Amino acid sequence: MPENCPELHLSEAQLGVWLAERAGHSRPGAYQWAEYLVLDGDVDAGLLASAVTRAAAECEAVNVRIIETTGSSPVQRLLRDPEHTVEVVDFRGASDPDAAAREWMRAEMAKAGGSDAGPLFLGAVLRVADDRSLVFHRVHHLALDGAGMALFAERVAEIYSCRYEGRAVPESGWAGLRPLVHAEAAYREAAARTADRDWWLERLAGRPDFLSLGTHAAAATDRSLRLTRVLSAEEFAGFRDGAERLGHRWTRLFTAATAAYLHAVTGSRDVVLSLPVAGRPAGLTRTVPAMSANVLPLRLHVDPAAPLGALLDQVADELRLVRRHQRYRGEHLRRELGYPEDGRKFFGPVLNIQRFDRPLRFGPTTATVHNLQAPPSEDLSIVAYDRGDGVLRLDFDANPANHSEELLRDVADRFPHMLWQVAEADRETPLARMAASTARERRHVAALGTGVTVRRPRPAARPSAGSPSRCRARLTLSRSARPRPGSG
Description:
This protein has helices spanning 12-21, 45-58, 97-111, 146-164, 178-188, 191-203, 233-245, 250-266, 308-324, 330-336, 405-424, 439-448, and strands at residues 7-9, 32-40, 64-67, 75-78, 87-90, 121-129, 132-140, 225-231, 270-277, 294-301, 350-355, 360-362, 365-373, 380-386, 392-398. Helix 2 (45-58) crosses helix 4, helix 7 crosses helix 11 and helix 8 packs across helix 11 (405-424). 34% of the residues lie in helices and 20% in strands.
């Protein structure tokens, strides 16, 4: 590599990933994002591969090499004329093409190293049927955050669609990393940073202890337990309708339901969630695919005697304020607030809502997006993916060092019931009527207290065996199965 390649300091977000990777709690490839797009339709695999290749070449964040320096933080060296080989792998002859493709992706994830172990990006096109293809992306978290991954996928779709339809491909409009690094340096010296710091310290005064369902504090390990639930297009539409009826966006309803659920299972009225935010100036949000994500506390007071409408209004106000002060780094805030050095970096369970503005269209084909691996969870993470394809995917990730599979299954099975209770309630419904347990469970407990012989409810089906680091299942709720507020 030429020695005169330009170098930049890491952003604070990048440095946080670099330090976490070297903390000794996880394997080298733990901080890789891995996703795949499913394209059901007749697509040109070669054209797909070339679209991924061009998008990768345009994205400066994945075209760097991390260089450790003596006595100071590492730097990122920008690579000149980066080359990306995007392989097309054909599994159509396999006895189970989809299983073979998943095994291939798992093997590629297992090969991945840390941020200093070669290219930060790998892409591939996997053929599993004549009318079905997968586009696989593996990116180190030091290069891209969730927003950056979304921008990258949108650009691949744009390039493919233009070439498929015989149109000229427009410029990406992306800037390199310098504007982001320079904006961060300017913020560190600005009065706005001091104002943000003061606001956060006042907002978190008398903070509660870290709220957790786990048995004890634990640093993130090299994997997360995972269970997945999916709301169908009809169910998700019903949830959005409930939000509209209550006068709020569905994301606020989802946030309120998360706080109500945690209150119900812990008894805490002072609920602090860890909220991922962009952590960058608004003007750079869509022009710089990179890693700048920040995690900040969202503090909510959950009063069981208060009406749901009051909690929803509180959520709206608090989200607005958090975003107004989102550039102050969460890791600095945690130190200043005196959180214990127990291996955790955040403030409580993570709530991460990721939305695409519109469906991903590859010519006439709409893609669905599936997350294979996110950076390891240090406690409990609830991630909601609205990818514009009509359904809502919920990934429940937990740290196996302090969460059991049974505990995670309880969360993943009961949380959707809280969603429906909130969506079908009125603004004046007291939060005390929002139960974490299902109506069936409450009937079972009530019958045990009367001496009536009852059939024990069957345990939730365990997810099918798969990768030891992932547990998966799918839930489809019929409207008749949704508990009404206060039912049972």
